[in-house]
Amino acid sequence: MHLSKPPKKIVIVQTAFIGDVVFLSPLVHAIKKSFEETQISVLVRPYASQVAKCIPGVDKVLTFDKHGEESGPPGILKAARRIRKEKFDLLIAPHRSTRTAILSGLTRIPLRVGFRQGLGRLVYHVAVDPIPNESCNLIQNFNLLEKIGIPADDSRLRLKSPADNRAYVEKFFTTNGLQADDKLVALCVGAFWQTKRWPAVYFASLGESLKERGYQPIMFGGPNERELALKINKTIKTPLKSCVGNSLAETAILLSRCEAAIGGDSGLTHMARALGLATVLIYGPTDQKAHIFNEKSKVLTAKVKCRPCSHHGPRKCPDKHHDCMRMVSPENVLDALRKIANLQTPIPLAERQTSGKRADATPMPV
Q1: Which of 17, 80, 202, 326 is the most buried (most CB within 10 A)?
Q2: Which residues are CB-contacts of 188 (< 8 A; sequence separation ≥ 6)?
Q3: Virtual torsion, Cα 172, 191, 72, 74, nearest 10 deg
Q4: Are domains 9-146 and 167-365 of this chain identical in fold?
Q5: Residues 6+ apart with CB under 8 A from 163
Q6: Residues ≥6 apart with Cβ < 8 Å to 57
Q7: What residues does 128 pair with on adjacent strands?
Q8: CA-CA distance, 310 to 180, in Å (whole number)?
């Protein structure tokens, strides 16, 4: 079907993880391109709201605390009543869960679009069958728009840094002894699913190599990854700078100040590439074919027969070896950075000793 007239208000429902919220940005861009005057809201979990506010074209962010105050049937009813008051014309639900389908139906929004899976076939007016044998989530989500006549073909992820960010950057630089012209590289050390994490000792080694090349590696991660950051710093001569545990808004601000990023298949790594950073992504248990990458991203995978083994990533390696992540080395990452970023190489030791310069001073182009 095609929309008979531009909708006044649209809500996009995505209550999964941070990365999934980042992946809404091409959908928002496509809708705004077709309907400039339409107000676009996104419904996300509370912890992801700061990321949603960074998506260009989003006019309003709503939250659904599905694991907190709005858990269970009473919570879904409460959330549905709140959404109903917004008087939306159109609901689009890329999230395929049963809970999302129930919530969508209870909103009573006049036109609801989602996937024809489970209860979806009953609550969505336009229930879309997933494209057979298509593993890319974004292409599947684009199909939701195309079924209602909204063209979607620009797959670029887009985030903008929060406004008025200078004070936070200045405070972080002062606290950590950084200079305004320091070249920062983001190390996205964690991931919600543990098997998507690169080994801590590899991040430590990479951090040392980056410092030798004149860069300042900064560890990024969520509050639950502070212990991991400490583990990394225990295996390195000089501790790395860290903003692990900061808010997602602060994370976006500092990421936008970095020149490159390295990490696994995690929300923060996808935030980095959406902010335009040259990004190296290490894929282990999950399938890189679920995403679309541009020339500023480089995906590294190990040649092991058992990968990919999971849609999200299991808690533990089913075969107890975790080779899919361990077989991607710090040297592999450095080589990838050379291909997508203007990576520097250190001055030879003998030359540094002759000149009396610091080991990380005046790096030379590769």
Answers
A1: 202
A2: 220, 221, 261, 262, 263, 264, 266, 268, 269, 272
A3: 30
A4: yes
A5: none
A6: 25, 28, 29, 31, 32, 40
A7: 115
A8: 42
Q: Is 275 left (phi over 0), alpha (psi -120 to 50) or beta?
A: alpha
Give the residues across from 216 on adjacent strands: 184
Q: What is the pLDDT of residues 103-124, one digit of tens each?
A: 999 999 999 999 999 999 999 9
**Could you write out the DSSP letters of every residue in 241-285?**
EE-TT--HHHHHHHHTT-SEEEEESSHHHHHHHHTT-EEEEEESS
Return the CA Rg of the chain: 22
Which pLDDT tens digit goes with each residue over 328-362? 999 999 999 999 997 766 655 555 455 544 444 43
CB 260 within 8 A of CB 184: no
Q: Which residues, in sequence order, are bridge partners of residue 97?
A: none
- Distance between CA atoms of residues 31 and 92, nearest Å: 11
What amino acid is encoded at 119 in this protein? L
**Dist. CA 146–CA 91, nearest whole Å:** 14
The amino acid occupying position 219 is M
**What is the model's pLDDT at position 2?**
82
Helix or strand holding residue 111 (H, E): strand 111-115
Q: What is the CATH number of domain 9-146?
A: 3.40.50.2000
Q: Residue 154: CB partners within 8 Å, gap ≥ 6?
A: 26, 29, 30, 33
CB 28, CB 58: distance < 8 Å:
yes
Q: Which of 95, 118, 79, 117 is nearest to 19 (CA)?
A: 95
Give the number of residues written for the chain.
366
In the chain, what is the straight-line distance between the N-terminal and C-terminal CA atoms, in Å?
A: 54
Report yes or no: 32 and 38 within 8 Å, Cβ to Cβ: yes
**Omega into 363 within 30° of 0, i.e. cis?**
no
Domain ranges of the chain: 9-146, 167-365
| Homologous superfamily of domain range 167-365 | Glycogen Phosphorylase B; (3.40.50.2000)
| 3-state DSSP helix/strand/coil % of the chain, to nearest 5 | 35, 15, 45
pLDDT band at 364 (very low <50, low <70, confident <90, very high): very low
Name the phi and psi angles at 303, rounded to 5.
Answer: -85, 80
